[in-house]
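# step 3/5: fold
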Amino acid sequence: MSQCARCGREVVGNGQSASLCPQCAAQLLSPSTVTSTSSYGAAPEFGATPATILPPGPAPTPPPPSRAQRLLRSPSAIIIAINILVFAAMALQGRHIVNFDAALVERWGANSGALTSGGQWWRLLASTFVHGGIIHIACNMWCLFNLGWLAELLFGRARFTLLYLLCGIGGSLASIGWREGALSVGASGAIFGLAGALLPALALSRNARLRQALRPQLSSIGLFVVYNLAFGAAIPGIDNAAHVGGLCTGLFLGTCFPSGYSQVARHDRLRVVISTLVLCVLFVFAAQYAVQRNRAWVEMDRAEDARERGDLTSAIAHARKAVALHPELVQWQFLLGTALLDAHQFQEALVPLTSTTRLSPNWGPGWVNLCVAQRELKQLPAALGSCTTGTRLAASDPESWFNLGRVRYELDDLPGAIEAMQRAAQLAPNGFDENLQAGLLFITARQPQKALPYLQKAHDLHPSDADVTRWLNLAQRTATSIPTR
């Protein structure tokens, strides 16, 4: 036993620190009591005993981060939050949450064979943050929550974020490369990528203790992958191409990316950079393949845009290219024929519209447009047959009855024409052409009283139309001049 050199307490001799008791040592190590003079052995005061200065001890352990801090630092939590925010914004815009329609998800960045490979490559990544409904996002975020923490543990936050984004892009590229004209959304491609990366990371981890501790996770992840791929193959509407693409991307990155902690940081960074560059080169080739696979869809998308702008020449040119690549698609034949009708190229429109009715004989609009082309070419008996079929298949379509009425009139079937045009006006009560033509047919049949309500409706719809005003005045004068009994 010895005495403390500062306070005189008895202490156990223990090398250099034997001359100080624990209380005095703690005071001397405190920032409030250690000064420059005491640290460097300035002359002690009269009567005081010199104190032995301890070597600096270990730095105090910082307090563990709070749960909120851990969430803010977790890329998994941040990605989940972004997905939820995007879903909430879409729900507000679409005003429902169960299932979003195709137009809404496309507007928010859905992966599309026509749009993405047509130049909007940002959709490859944006689509991984867009979901089709509440069940879709709930399932994906649950899987991400369960796989994300393990991937963060093995790869670290930075490598995890890079891996997740690359797997999402890989899944999107596989989707448009495998499924022509595909429209898909969701984080499942990236999530499958995480599962794929975890498999080699767990099996090949350099940390034996970590590998042993996480061995049960290996079989669970393998079952997750097999079950969901089988489920996606059995259920229509699930984009299994994105799942396979994300999985293959994850397997590659999980094998190449270092997992756990290493003393050779420079070597690890080099592996990450090289594997990322190799993957980007593979992505370029995959994108070129997707462009070739979706060339027809790109042409048709451009044709639709040009037709909406009123540029019929470009619309017809793009539609011809698309139909040449996929002549079996009825919608494309129909769009080409309709664009040719709009451009008054009636003879040219006969071929795609005839193909439309041959490919889809029970689709009314195809027969109606074929009827229009045949009527313009004065093929009236053929037009009558096409229009009759059109009204039978599309009985609630006012255009089908309108065109049938015009064909019957040209075939001198005035009662049949009036009957068809009345039906068209009933189905389209605010249709200008339907009401006007019905009124004119009644005037031709010398029934001005019956013509008045139709002509009045047409005048109300277009009060500045001088011809309509003249016909209405004529019907009113004629109706009042007819004697009544």
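# step 4/5: annotate
Confidence is low (pLDDT under 50) at residues 13-20, 25-54.
# step 5/5: archive (pending)
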